[in-house]
């Protein structure tokens, strides 16, 4: 399957059986791309978070991304983007570097946007990425998000603050996209 072909993925809540995989990914810096934080988290951090809320609360949710065969290949998350609105910010990560560049990122973003607009009373979804992260920028655009602007020094990666580009989609944008894809 080429990167241009549509990938089928599924999202599911984190379960206890996922903790070894999540802990290993959280400690393995070699699995992270150049635009991801190198900060490591302890196994206790992940176990405590899972025990508290299963990585799912009104403020934030982490979901496991599964490929066509049901194998966990990464994670997706959403969280409150602004305290004063219902907007959600999204993020995604493919754990295995060999799976990157194959269309999974675009499938994750589209599926997460559909999940949020279908199940949450929100008007807007956004994502923020480093300006040089062209892969994530293309993923956001393929998911129907529009470039909205630049935030100076908003992301802390590898010891320095870098700018972030913001992409967003509103519920009416998403509904129009759904109507054109369904036709």
From TrEMBL:
Transmembrane segments: none annotated. Pfam families: Acetyltransf_3. Its EC number is 2.-.-.-. The keyword Transferase applies. It is an enzyme of class 2 (transferase). Residues 9-172 form the N-acetyltransferase domain. The keyword Magnesium does not apply. Keywords: Acyltransferase, Transferase. One of its GO terms (molecular function) is transferase activity. It comes from the Bacteria. InterPro entries: Acyl_CoA_acyltransferase, GNAT_dom, N-acetyltransferase. Belongs to the acetyltransferase family. RimJ subfamily. This is GNAT family protein. The lineage of its organism: Bacteria, Pseudomonadati, Pseudomonadota, Betaproteobacteria, Burkholderiales.
């Amino acid at each position: 399957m080429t990167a241009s072909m549509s990938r089928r993925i599924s999202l599911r809540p984190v379960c206890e059986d996922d903790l070894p995989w999540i802990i290993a990914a959280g400690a393995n810096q070699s699995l992270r791309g150049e635009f991801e934080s190198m900060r490591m988290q302890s196994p206790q951090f992940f176990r405590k978070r899972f025990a508290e809320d299963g990585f799912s609360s009104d403020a934030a949710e982490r979901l496991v991304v599964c490929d066509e065969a049901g194998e966990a290949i990464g994670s997706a998350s959403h969280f409150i983007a602004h305290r004063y609105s219902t907007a959600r910010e999204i993020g995604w990560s493919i754990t295995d570097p060999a799976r990157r560049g194959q269309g999974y990122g675009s499938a994750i973003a589209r599926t997460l946007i559909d999940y949020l607009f279908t199940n949450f009373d929100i008007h807007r979804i956004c994502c923020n990425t480093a300006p040089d992260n062209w892969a994530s920028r293309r993923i956001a655009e393929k998911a129907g998000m529009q470039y909205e602007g630049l935030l100076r020094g908003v992301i802390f990666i590898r010891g320095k603050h870098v700018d972030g580009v913001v992409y967003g989609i509103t519920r009416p944008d998403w509904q129009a996209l759904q109507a054109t894809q369904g036709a």
